[in-house]
Write a structure and sequence with these properties.
Layout: E1 2-5, H1 15-44, H2 53-90, E2 93-96, E3 103-106, H3 111-122, H4 124-127
Antiparallel strand pairs: 1-2, 2-3
Helix pairs in contact: 1-2
C-alpha cells in the first residue's frame, strides 16, 4: 500500500490558524468534560442524604455520568473542525492499493481515518482488488 501527502491543494484555513485551532480544540476536549464532572458533583453534593462511603460513591457516579455525557456531546460537536484543522496541518493524503491502484483521497482526515483507510486497502476483498 502506498501513502502520499500532497501539498498542492488550496486551503481555506491558514496553517498557523489550523495549529492554534488544533491546540484550542485539544484543550477544550480535555478541560471541559473534567470541569463538567466537578460542577455536577458540586451541584449534587448538598442534596445528598447519604453519609460516608455512599456519599462518595454517589458523587463519583454523578461525576462520571456528567463527564461521559459532556465528552460525547463535545466530541460530536467539534469533530468537523478537528478534521479540517488536522487535515490542514498534516496535508491532504492519498492511500492506494499497490496491486490494483484503488485510491482513497482525503482532504480532511484524522489518524483514525488513516488507520481505517489502510485497513480497508489491506484487505483485497474489502475494496474489490482483483490482483491478489
Amino acid at each position: 500500500m502506498k501513502t502520499e501527502t500532497r501539498n498542492n491543494v488550496v486551503h481555506t484555513i491558514p496553517l498557523g490558524t489550523a495549529r492554534l485551532r488544533l491546540l484550542a480544540l485539544g484543550l477544550v476536549r480535555t478541560a471541559v468534560p473534567a470541569l463538567a464532572a466537578v460542577a455536577a458533583a458540586w451541584a449534587v453534593e448538598p442534596q445528598l442524604n447519604a453519609d460516608g462511603f455512599a456519599r462518595v460513591a454517589y458523587l463519583v457516579l454523578v461525576a462520571v455520568i456528567a463527564l461521559s455525557a459532556v465528552d460525547n456531546v463535545l466530541v460530536n460537536a467539534t469533530e468537523r473542525a478537528y478534521r479540517r484543522a488536522y487535515g490542514r496541518v498534516h496535508g491532504p493524503r492519498s492511500w492506494s492499493c499497490e496491486d490494483c491502484g484503488r485510491l482513497i483521497t482525503a482532504r480532511e482526515w484524522t489518524p483514525f481515518d488513516a488507520a481505517a483507510f489502510e485497513t480497508h486497502l489491506a484487505d483485497p476483498r474489502a475494496h474489490g482488488c482483483t490482483h491478489s
